[in-house]
Amino acid sequence: xxxxxxxxxxxxxxxxxxxxxxxxxxxxxxxxxxxxxxxxxxxxxxxxxxxxxxxxxxxxxxxxxxxxxxxxxxxxxxxxxxxxxxxxxxxxxxxxxxxxxxxxxxxxxxxxxxxxxxxxxxxxxxxxxxxxxxxxxxxxxxxxxxxxxxxxxxxxxxxxxxxxxxxxxxxxxxxxxxxxxxxxxxxxxxxxxxxxxxxxxxxxxxxxxxxxxxxxxxxxxxxxxxxxxxxxxxxxxxxxxxxxxxxxx
Length: 249
What we know:
alpha/beta, 7-stranded mixed beta sheet, single chain, 18% strand
């Protein structure tokens, strides 16, 4: 598989890897925020298996495979460790990098991530089996795919693989999250697909939810964006970019 990536910004310092959401690519996930992030650091934006410019491979689409692909990309670029910002499926890939390859991750920004099925609103994925590729024709996701994919006719297979992924979402135990070494910034829209209660539970597992004026400030952070749905999260660039820069610095 030939993995597509883009390299932006300054070469000095720890690079930031961007990992997009399912059915999305660099442009639809990070088109608004990438230029702002690249003003102050090196940004490596990747397109995962069967997404965007990257062709499909003869294997299932899984978070584990995608995390391994990012590690190999870092190897080929000579990057020993990086910061990682993932949104939606990309946040799950970023979290897998942090738990399975901790030596390759310095800091994590996880936007709209769930560690268990019940982290999502009940019934949210009940109709995923009925999703057909034609339902997405004319959307910005389909338009991006047709514009960038090596085989524009492969969109139907991508939808099939994403449906299989959504039917078997990755899970993490509380112990795995507590053991996460990388300082983490959690980002959630207040009208996201992940329940805010779940995000707060995750924040506490990472050491957050303490009175910072009384005890030491935790390494993790939590940002809940007002008036923001799941698909709106990466478009809140003017809010997110300063938070991410300050956290990574």
